[in-house]
Amino acid sequence: MKDPFRLDGQRALVTGANTGIGQAIAVALGQAGAEVICAGRSSMDETLAMIPGATALTLDFADPMAAKETFKEHPVDILVNNAGIIRRADSVDYSEEDWDAVIDVNQKALFFTCQAFARAVFARQGHGRIVNVASLLSFQGGIRVPAYTASKHAVAGLTKLLANEWAAKGINVNAIAPGYIVTNNTEALRADPERSQAILDRILAGHWGEASDIAGAAVFLASPAANYIHGTVLSVDGGWLAR
Length: 243
Fold this sequence. Notes:
Blueprint (H helix, E strand, L loop, with lengths): L10 E5 L4 H12 L3 E6 L4 H4 L6 E4 L11 H4 L4 E4 L14 H28 L4 E6 L12 H21 L4 E8 L8 H4 L2 H10 L9 H11 L10 E4 L7
Helix pairs in contact: 1-8, 4-5
């Protein structure tokens, strides 16, 4: 029997694959047999060195339409929308510039990248899988990250909406909601002893997660093992939401 968790013969595009969660997902997809394209605005050299046969594609998602033509030139079976940014400030001081920058990358670019992918899949009458990277702040409010929280609530909602529209047409759309993971985005939190300890006190596992902890969930949702899963936002959070 063929291993339902293998991705042999599949091509995957991972956005924001240069570091952190995106890099870990890209590596795991490659280990599962997928041909991997690493997309983003930063150098992908470190990630490419970890994935035999992987290629890089320069896309700057500060332009929400950056991937509009991508899937015509680079047809893929699996899309992982991981690219995202965060800007921190008290809500009373939050600027329109920061708001627009975060929403453009985390929400608007994600939607239009999904749209471009789906159009390409439908045009070839194929099947596809989308894995969006949401957040615990798809469910909670957070502190000092209003645009990020709004954008990640939107990721969860869009994941469900697109599943409603595309599940019967051959595309699985799901999301992963990472908990508190050691990445560049959480550096400020980890550098604050009181905030970091408060976070640790709630995590049932007792420690911050690693980017690699997210990778297995991504491989699962991208694989035939998840054929009947649509519109799910899977929390990988060390038990945070259970408390």
